[in-house]
Amino acid sequence: MIGFDYSGKNYIVTGGAGGMGSCVVRGIAAGGGKVALVDLNEEAAAKIVAENPEQIHFYKMDLADHEDIRTVAAQIIRDFGQVHGLVNLAGIVDTTKFMDMTDEIWDRVMNINLTSQYVLIHALFGHMAEHRYGRIVNVASVAAKVGGGLFGTSAYAVSKAGVVCLTKAIAKEGSPYGIVCNAVCPGYVKTPLVAALKAEQEEKVLAGSQLHRPADPQEVANLMLFYLSDLASFIDGEIGDADGGATLD
Questions:
Q1: Contacts of 45 (CB under 8 A, 6+ apart)
Q2: CB atoms near residue 164 (< 10 Å)
Q3: In angstroms, how far is CA 191 from the centroid of its own chain?
Q4: Nearest CA to 152 among 124, 116, 110?
Q5: ∠51-89-1 over CA atoms, to 5°?
Q6: Is 180 left (phi over 0), alpha (psi -120 to 50) or beta?
Q7: Residues known to be catalytic
Q8: Burial 72-82 (b: 16+ CB within 10 A, else e)
Q9: Helix pair 154-174, 116-131: axis angle to 10 deg
Q10: What distance in Å separates the CA atoms of residue 82 and residue 124, rounded to the nearest whole number?
Q11: Angle at CA 184, nearest 5°, toward 161 and 99?
Q12: 172-206 b/e with 16+ CB inside 10 Å = b?
């Protein structure tokens, strides 16, 4: 694990009980930071909190519920005093083909993958502006750049493209207040989400990558941890690919 210094700072990580999220949470704690691990999976979160209960604290949040997002964000601010950074990682994958898409599926994907990121950033923006400091990392996907095709299809790709645009907009509006915002676009990451992939499907995905292998969750988390750190102090509005050379841009 790459070490960064987060001493004396507090962070929120959504999806913190998952593969990449848990790597980010552990990385922040290892760097001396305090983390609000946000997830719906209480059982998985409890195991991570148990590793370092002084620095890692669990908060349950329903990303489909805007009121719940704002309520929990306000509670974290009260508990932590100041929130220095946010990693918007939680989301869902949808593989519904466009021909079979329904308004309900489309709205759900947009709400959880895109709107929830806006709501949480908005809930923290004034607080960060008041303190003149904020490090925001949004997680998009290579699907945002290529229109889907790895796992998620149209709705997923559009929701993640929205995250890319949201990131640049927040970077522009946040910079006068000391708030920077960057995004990470993961490619094929070896997580339980893709465990059911058939051999021929995996081979097709890997053929589009220069490294011809899936990423370990830690490899993608490292980029998130970098953007979250003060080592990235002159980087703002950047959309960083962690995709093994799939997009080459």
A1: 16, 17, 37, 39, 58
A2: 17
A3: 15
A4: 110
A5: 45
A6: beta
A7: 156
A8: bbeebbeebee
A9: 10
A10: 10
A11: 30
A12: eebeebebbbbbbbbbbbbbeebeebeeeeeeebb
Token readout for 82 is: 């100041």
Q: Which residues contact 24 (CB under 8 A, 6 or more apart)?
A: 13, 16, 87, 89, 221, 224, 225, 228
Q: CA-CA distance, 119 to 70, in Å (whole number)?
A: 7
Predicted TM-score (pTM) of this structure: 0.93
End-to-end CA distance of the chain: 26
Order of all β-strands in the sheet with 85-88: 56-60, 34-39, 10-14, 85-88, 134-139, 179-186, 239-242
Contacts for 208 with CB less than 8 Å, ≥ 6 apart? 246
Average pLDDT over residues 103-107: 98
Residues 2-61 have pLDDT tens digits of 679 999 999 999 999 999 999 999 999 999 999 999 999 999 999 999 999 999 999 999
Query: pLDDT by residue (tens digit) across 45-103?
Result: 999 999 999 999 999 999 999 999 999 999 999 999 999 999 999 999 888 999 999 99
Can you read off the two tokens belonging to residue 170? 């927040």
Q: What would you report as the CA-atom Rg of the chain, rounded to the nearest whole angstrom?
A: 17
User: Count of CB atoms within 10 A of residue 117's CB?
Assistant: 29
What CA–CA distance (Å, rounded) separates 77 from 13? 14
* Pair of tokens at residue 199: 């051999």
Q: What count of other Cβ atoms lies within 10 Å of the Cβ of residue 130?
A: 10
